[in-house]
């Protein structure tokens, strides 16, 4: 399967899409734990050329164990192109807002214009539905997930389909791994 990259450069997320507040802890000058970063995450990207499909990359690490002694640096404040998966020993944390399929995958006549984005990653992924509903589509089965449901995605081919009338918001943690 080809390298999967849903990120679309040059487009801004649609007004009204989910904004994610990112808080990061660290130590103050006296060694006490504190919040060292508190902001609306600036790393919201458009997915699949659809401004209502928003991918907010919150944090990533490139090695495990993570180096929490290193100076604080925003891991996405770089000119490197975005990638879906983590590095071999790294992790990725992101939030996705997926619009209803009918709003971006089909034209006014109901004809599919963008197929499901089947893909794999070299990782184990934890997908948590925060709001709305989504279908996890696999080679041999499909399952509807709603708020509070969690999918442990073990590197297998999959896609997401929002068959409802409302956006679905999911959180994802991807940890470097191997394909099955």
Task: Summarize this structure as a short list of keywords or feature phrases.
180 residues; mainly beta; Jelly Rolls; three-stranded antiparallel beta sheet
Overall description:
By secondary structure, this protein is mainly beta. The protein has a single domain, classed as Jelly Rolls, CATH 2.60.120.10. 0% of the residues lie in helices and 43% in strands. It contains no helices and twelve strands. The strands form three sheets. Strands 1-4-5-6-12-7-10 form a seven-stranded antiparallel β-sheet, with no helix packed on it. The chain has a three-stranded antiparallel β-sheet with strand order 9-8-11, with no helix packed on it. It is globular and about 60 Å long. The two termini are 13 Å apart. 21% of the residues are buried. The mean pLDDT is 92.
Q: How many strands appear in the DSSP assignment?
A: 12
Tell me what the CATH architecture is: Sandwich
Task: Please tell me the overall pLDDT.
Answer: 92
- SSE string: EEEEEEEEEEEE
Shape: globular
Q: What is the overall number of helices?
A: 0
Instruction: Give the biggest beta sheet.
Output: 7 strands, antiparallel
Multimer state: single chain
Straight-line distance between termini: 13 Å
Q: Give the C-alpha Rg.
A: 17 Å
The name CATH uses for the topology is: Jelly Rolls
Helix share, percent: under 10%
Question: Strand-residue fraction?
Answer: 35-45%
CATH superfamily: Jelly Rolls
Class by alpha and beta content: mainly beta
Unreliable stretches (pLDDT < 50, length at least 5) are: none
Going across the biggest sheet, name each strand in turn: 1-4-5-6-12-7-10
CATH top level class name = Mainly Beta
Domain unit count: 1
């Amino acid at each position: 399967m080809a390298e999967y990259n849903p990120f679309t450069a040059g487009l801004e997320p649609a007004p009204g899409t989910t904004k994610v507040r990112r808080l990061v802890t660290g130590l103050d000058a006296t060694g006490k734990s504190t919040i060292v970063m508190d902001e609306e995450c600036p790393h919201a990207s458009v997915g699949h050329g659809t401004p209502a499909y928003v991918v907010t990359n919150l944090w990533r690490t490139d090695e495990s164990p993570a180096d929490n002694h290193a100076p604080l640096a925003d891991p996405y404040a770089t000119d490197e192109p975005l990638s879906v998966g983590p590095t071999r020993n790294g992790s990725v944390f992101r939030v996705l807002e997926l619009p209803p399929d009918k709003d971006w995958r089909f034209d006014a006549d109901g004809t599919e214009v963008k197929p499901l984005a089947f893909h794999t990653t070299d990782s184990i992924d934890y997908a948590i539905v925060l709001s709305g509903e989504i279908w996890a589509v696999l080679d041999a089965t499909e399952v509807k997930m709603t708020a509070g449901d969690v999918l442990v995605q073990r590197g297998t081919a999959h896609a997401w389909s929002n068959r409802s009338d409302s956006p679905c918001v999911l959180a994802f943690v991807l940890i470097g791994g191997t394909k099955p």
